[in-house]
Design brief:
heterodimer; A: 83% helix; B: 245 residues; 0% strand
Chain lengths: 255, 245
């Protein structure tokens, strides 16, 4: 048991050390709280925001945009990925576009999105969607392509129709790749929401950071940032749990 | 069996044709979408004006400084954390928390700390690139196969020997992967950093063109950044293949 407790204990210790050192450095006058704020002030700010309902409001906006962007990315990325994985011509046809969307600094298009979709939530969702969709599509496609030919042959020889093949053989065997794509996508969707909110006022956490930065209110800025950090950690951990569940059919060490 | 290149080229050509023709038929407003022909003309304009070179030099130096710092700090830190377990347990949680968050959210804080000049962009490039480099270097060291280390030890290798001749070479592929992941984040970071607040650089120009709705010139800049990102990534991928062999 001590073997498992040691990393957790040291992890908690390290966060505690950072927080205590930060607080003490400010109190001792080594750090200027105007620039760095301090943990107690941030806690108070978070508590105040939670009481006033501001925190819940901006959290709801950000989570809503994230869910919409990531949800769209899953639906379309998975669809495109399955099509591209199944039909080679489709893969070749969409490949250049996927590369462009993957490598372009998409945030540069936000003025256009504002023109097309209005200033606010829709633009944020669009940017988050575009950032998240490529890894999901590419990984789904790769996963389908990498299905073991022996599995496919075995299913065929038992008379599997193409539909059975897709649902019962190809898709289950691509789960690790697809989940890896989702894992990349989750991070990029959150990044998309936060970056877009820095530029487009939507009432979310990123907008709150940008707004408070403009007023040089370091404490409120860092309070929103802490909530974003927590969101990121929760998303990553949650995906790990989902991965374990969906891939449970694989008995040996996977992939 | 049609060849990959032919199908890809045809689909891009179709897309460009539709994009060119749609505004002419009045289906979409060219003010919103521009047109390939206009983008081409804009590219010539941009190339002729002196601003591109000046902005590119600013952005490239921010990128280079931040990325060099990330390499210089990320690889040694990753190696240390991979080697010493107690250190890893201590430092890994904060790094993982940073890994899970969009590091670009730190941008406004860097601007408050370091000002609107180059320093804040160097910082955001650094933080974007250094995290994947540390995480992957660390993973690479930990994935070194135990028998390799044991074999070296049974031939009386000192700890330094094991580190320099076994762990270092064996973790190389992972390190290079971290560098590639860091690279694409660094390119995005420099552009977003300059778009957020700056007085010069490619991102600043993108922001200016976007606010002026010069879609044609905006696309030229976006394509340039994408091409740079792709070229840099491919370069590292080449390196990756060589290391893997």
């Amino acid at each position: 048991m001590t073997g498992r407790l040691k990393p957790i204990g040291l992890g908690v210790l390290s966060f505690t050390l950072i927080i205590v050192a930060w607080e003490l450095a400010v109190r001792a006058g080594w750090l200027n709280p105007f620039f760095t704020s301090q943990p107690t002030a941030i806690m108070t700010a978070l508590e105040r925001a939670a009481r006033a309902g501001d925190l819940a409001r901006s959290l709801r906006v950000t989570l809503g945009e994230f869910a919409a962007g990531f949800g769209l990315a899953i639906a379309i990325g998975f669809g495109v990925g399955v099509l591209g994985g199944w039909f080679r011509t489709v893969e070749y046809a969409i490949d250049p576009f996927l590369w462009f969307v993957y490598s372009a600094p998409l945030i540069a298009f936000y003025p256009l999105f504002v023109l097309w979709l209005g200033l606010g939530t829709h633009t944020v969702v669009a940017i988050s969607f575009l950032l998240a969709v490529t890894p999901i599509a590419v990984n789904t496609m790769t996963g389908i392509r990498q299905t073991s030919p022996q599995l496919v042959l075995a299913a065929r020889s038992f008379g599997a129709r193409p539909r059975d093949l897709l649902w019962n053989v190809v898709l289950p065997s691509s789960v690790p790749m697809i989940v890896a794509g989702l894992r990349l996508g989750v991070g990029r969707a959150l990044t998309g929401v936060v970056i877009a909110e820095l530029f487009v006022p939507s009432g979310g956490l990123g907008s709150s950071i940008a707004y408070n930065a403009g007023l040089l209110k370091t404490t409120d800025m860092l309070a929103s940032l802490m909530v974003i950090v927590a969101l990121g950690v929760i998303c990553t951990q949650g995906l790990g749990a989902i991965e374990a569940r969906f891939d449970s059919w694989r008995t040996g060490p996977g992939l | 069996m049609r060849s990959r290149a032919a199908v890809s080229a045809m689909s891009v050509a179709l897309f460009l044709a539709a994009w060119e023709v749609a505004p002419r038929l009045g289906i979409v407003d060219p003010f919103y979408t521009a047109q390939p022909s206009r983008v081409l003309i804009a590219a010539i304009d941009v190339a002729r004006s002196g601003t591109l070179l000046r902005d590119a030099i600013v952005s490239l130096s921010e990128f280079a400084a931040g990325f060099a710092l990330a390499l210089a700090i990320g690889v040694p830190v990753g190696l240390l954390l991979g080697t010493f377990r107690t250190l890893r347990y201590l430092i890994d949680p904060p790094i993982m928390a940073l890994y899970a968050t969009p590091q670009l959210a730190l941008l406004p804080i860097f601007v408050v700390w370091l000002g609107i000049g180059m320093a804040s962009k160097v910082a955001v490039v650094f933080i974007g690139a250094v995290i994947p480099i540390i995480v992957n270097t660390m993973a690479g060291v930990r994935q070194v196969e135990r028998p390799l280390v044991l074999a070296a030890q049974s031939f009386c290798a000192t700890r330094l020997d094991v580190f320099a001749r076994v762990i270092l070479p064996a973790s190389q592929p992972s390190v290079v992967l971290g560098i590639r992941l860091g690279l694409s984040r660094a390119v995005l970071a420099v552009v977003v950093g300059e778009m957020y607040v700056s007085q010069e650089g490619i991102g600043n120009e993108i922001m200016r063109l976007g606010s002026a709705f010069r879609v044609d010139q905006l696309l030229v800049y976006v394509l340039l950044v994408s091409a740079f990102g792709l070229a840099a990534t491919n370069l590292v991928r080449r390196l990756e293949e060589r290391v893997a062999r």
